[in-house]
Design a protein that fits this description.
By secondary structure, the chain is α+β, with helices and mostly antiparallel strands. Among the domains are: 42 residues; 73 residues, Alpha-Beta Plaits. It is 41% helix and 17% strand. The chain contains six helices and four strands. A four-stranded antiparallel beta sheet has the order 2-3-1-4. A hairpin with a 2-residue loop joins β2 and β3. The longest helix is centred in the first third of the chain and has 23 residues. The chain starts with 27 loop residues before the first helix and ends with a strand. The mean pLDDT is 84.
Length: 176
């Protein structure tokens, strides 16, 4: 590999600064095109002015005469509107039945310490939860539950409060 001597290199070999490119004159075609467009537009305006119908120009200048000359008949209301106004309306209020008390479950864990941690988060949100121990074919589970609630709306209100405290995954069921 060849050695390069950068110390004894002459300063004249350096590249000179680039000069900005020279400004090119505006192409003649663009100027001609602009003149043709302006001339064509002017000719069009002159042609429309010379060949305009004088009666039509007068009508547009005085629009009030045109409205008074033509009488417009008002539309009559359809017959079904009269029938609707004459009928009586009967309203029956149906009371919704409550399905029963609701319970909200926010978690189910294999260890009691995990259930206690979730119960503490719920307590910091201002709600009281309980841990239920259940045994089944899959072993022992610790369920964190809130409730019972009389209506589903109350349970959803507490569920939204928990969401604001970043406790998600709660489900609302009928209490059995």
């Amino acid at each position: 590999m060849a050695q390069h001597d950068f110390i004894n290199k002459k300063p004249g070999n350096r590249k000179s600064k680039k000069q900005p490119p020279k400004k090119k004159p505006l192409p003649i075609l663009l100027i001609i095109l602009a003149v043709l467009l302006v001339g064509g537009f002017s000719f069009g305006l002159w042609y429309v002015k010379k060949n305009a119908d004088p009666k039509l120009v007068e009508q547009q200048a005085n629009p009030t005469k045109a409205k008074s000359e033509s009488k417009i008949a008002k539309p009559r209301p359809p017959e079904f509107i009269k029938e609707i106004k004459e009928q009586e309306i009967q309203v029956t209020i149906k009371k919704l039945e409550q399905k029963g008390p609701y319970v909200m479950q926010c978690g189910s864990f294999k260890t009691k310490s995990q259930a206690e941690t979730l119960k503490a988060k719920i307590a910091f949100a201002g709600l009281i939860a309980e841990i239920k121990k259940s045994t089944g074919s899959n072993g022992v589970w610790y369920k964190v539950r809130l409730g019972p609630y009389k209506t589903k709306r109350l349970a959803e209100s507490d569920k939204n409060k928990l969401k604001r405290s970043k406790v998600t995954g709660c489900g609302i069921w009928l209490w059995t």
